[in-house]
Structures are given as C-alpha cells and as structure tokens.
Amino acid sequence: MEAPRLDWRTKGLPPAAEGLTIDEIGRLGLDLLAGDLMMPAAVIREGALRGNVAGMQAFAERERALLCPHGKTHMSPELLRLQIEAGAWGITAATAHHVRVYRRLGIGRIFLANQLAGRADLDFVMGELAYDPSFDFFCLVDSADGAGLLAEAAGRAGCERPVQVLIETGIEAGRAGVRDAAEAIALARTIAGEPRLALRGIECFEGIRQTRPDARIEAADMIDLATIAAREIADEGLFAEGDLLISAGGSAFLDLCAARLPARIGGRRTVRIIRPGCYVTHDSGLYERLTRPDGKPLPGLPHLEHALEVWGVVLSVPEPGLAIVGAGKRDLSYDVEPPRPLWIHRAPGGVPPRPASAMEVVALWDQHLGLSMGMGSLTVGDMVGFGISHPCATFDRWTALLTVDDAYRVTGAVTTLF
Q1: Cis peptide before 40 (omega within 30 of 0)
Q2: d(CA 322, CA 287)
Q3: At 390, which CATH number?
Q4: Number of domains in the chain
Q5: pTM of the prediction?
C-alpha cells in the first residue's frame, strides 16, 4: 500500500511538508522544539510507542493469552499494522463502521466487542462473511432478540457457515451484557438451537466503572461472573466445537485478567483473549495511576510510557498567574480529567524542555486553554507540551499525528480514519 500523502488540510503540518508522504516527512529534519511545526501540534514519541507495543505483546505471550488490541483508540492504519506485525492475534472493533474500515485495510480477524442490531450494520458484516470464507469474525450477543437478528441477517446474506458469537456478561446499572449466570445459560440454550450461530465463548468488559474506589473489586467480580457462566454452559455442552474463547478487555485491569481468566473450563482448554487499546500510547493520567498505583507497574504488567503529547504556544498572559495557550477542545480531549502540563520550552532553544511544575489546566475552550502558573513562569511565545488522560478522544481530533524521536525531531507520521 502506498504511503499516504499529507497536505494543507493536516493540522500542525508546516507548509514545507505539504504534499509529502508520511515517510518523506521524516527526512525533512523538522524539529518541534525549534518551532518548525504549526501550533497546536499532536506528536507521538516513537520510542515510547514501539516500547509499549512490544511490551504488551510480550506480556500477553508470557501470560499465554492472545492479544486482540482495541483499534478504536487510534483508528490508525499505521498503528494497526504495527500491532499486527508485533504479533497481535486480531483487532477489536466497537462498531460495524470499524469493521468496515478494518476490512478495507485487509484485516482478516476481527473481534467486534459489541452487539450488532441495525439492519445496515448486520447486512454489511454478513455480506463480508458470505463473500470471504477466510474472514474470521466474532461478535457479542446478550439476548434472544439479538441472537435472532444475527440469524436472520445471516440467512438473508446466504452465509454458509455459522456466525461466531460470545455471550456478553455485564453488571447491574452498567452497559450491555447478561446480569447473571442463569440469564447466560438460558441464552446459550437459545443459541445452541440456532444452526446459523455458533457459541464460541464468554466475554466481559471489566473496566466499565474504572474510576470508582472499588473498581478493582468490581472488575474481579465481573471476570468471575463470566467464568462461572462459562463453566455452567460447558457443563451442559452448549458451546460449539473448536476453541472455547474467554475474553476480557480494557487497559486498566490486565493483571486481573491474567490472574482470573481460567486456562481450562469443563475439561476443555480455553483460549484467553485480552483486548487493551490505550496501551499503544498509554496516558498521562487515569491509566498511569491504575497500572502504577505506587509509581511502578503492578506485578507482571509491562512498563508503559506515555507517548502522546499535544503542544501549544502561549498566546497571552492577561493577568498574573494565568497563561492562555493556543490549544483547546478541538485539539486535546477532556474525557476523564483535564490535560496535564508536562513540559515548557522556549523556541528556538537548543536546550531540552523543562518540566511544567506547579501548573494546572483550569479552563478549556474550543481553541484556547487556561493554565494556572507560578508568577512569571511563562511568557508569550513559550511552548507547552500536554499529556492526555485516556487518549482515545484526542486521536479523533487529528487526521494525522507526527512521530518524533526523543529529541522531538520529526521521524514521520501516522494517519487516522475516524
């Protein structure tokens, strides 16, 4: 596939790089710290990125689990390719549109960690299954109604093989998923009686309320519910032939997944599938705290570094202790908590950026950010680099993000397809 070209529609790209491929951009010698990029600019620290991808793959292999990264975090062809080349078993999707994007990118194994219900969504996916016998697809179901819709759509498309499904388990007042083992068994009986469906396993997403003080306890309970349901379904012989899949996802509690997802159920070996997404760039907030509660990784987890930063320039210092930076909601996300100031720098410099100590984001507008600071800490023209908590919603604000080395020299770019 030809490397994409970037042009004037790419935010942060300087005029000198217009029309170049993402590989050619890396040969221009652009330097963020020298002021070569238009502001604001989103960058990915390439060393941290590659270390995170390799580290998570090694973690999965150590735990004898299969890694199926959640592509919704970045929706980047280049990053998806990086994860697959590192050894990912498949790619997780959240919507039928994601499935379509992945298919156009040539991805042959997709785990849709969601229900399929809309007619157009169903018909697209079933059409892909009918057209390509090698397409390895899995999706979730949590009701007889949902199972019926899948079976009807498979019939309309003329699928010659059953649709592979996993029963989704959930939690009261949470998202989708059966709420107890009895519901799961009843649904398994329904699926087992439908020849167009094949029940391949059990699934949960244990990170639904990951900011709660008791989040780890709740996550463990959710994984245990999935395991209990799987054992009871296996006892009735309701799983289809082939590997028995048991899957949990999310980036917050992978140590629990590794410890609690069973290696065998009902005398059958299980295939354990984990589906983290945010690890690819990690973050500078929520996941950093959850995976490193005392400043070092929880036992067994890989060492992950934040790789995503958004940089802006100080536009105004309208009053003592307040700086207005030219970056806002259109550039960086405020999902779980505000962006975190990491670095300050004066361009052109020749010296490394300094830590942004005693600074805090106090306001976020469309194109502006309010930053509290010590008296006289920043002046107009200074650059500020921000880390992001929960990076997903920052990626979708950029059609391309530049990759940089440890000295913030541009090495290339990755594109997104939101």
Answers
A1: yes
A2: 28
A3: 2.40.37.20
A4: 2
A5: 0.96
